[in-house]
Amino acid sequence: MLQKFFKNKNIPKKLKLRLKNTITDKTLTYASETWTLTKRNRKQLNIFERKVYRRILGTVYDNRKENWRILTNKEIYASVKKPTIIETIRLNRLRLFGHVQRMEENKIPKRVLYMNLGTTRLRGRPRNRWQDEMREDGRIVG
After folding, report:
1. How far apart are CA 4 and CA 121, in angstroms?
2. Residues 18-74: pLDDT tens digits?
3. pTM
4. CB contact burial 108-136 (16+ within 10 A = b; e otherwise)
């Protein structure tokens, strides 16, 4: 339903971007603070976000080549001036981590965060845990 709205040339781009931020981003990042993302997940989220931006911003006329072309990734992010969906998820995760850190020691979320199950992992490369993601996010942001 939003595709027709985003393609409509009569609707201002500013309104389309606001709608994307309020509907698409909120729906896409619902409960994202608890996710552990793989490289593939990150790539798919970035691709989806850029597709939506390209649909909203449309094509541009290139005077040098005298033809229409789509915007490059750098041009998209320069014109939007908003954090990417992955950066938003990272910030949400850090916000939740800070919230849990400030809790009292006997609260369930804090106990679960530092709980050691004492089980063995499967063979092969270990899957990323939420704590691993948090360590990585802290290095990137801090």
Report:
1. 48
2. 888 888 888 888 988 888 898 999 999 999 999 999 988 888 888 787 888 888 899
3. 0.80
4. eebeebeeeeeeeeeeeeeeeeeeebbee
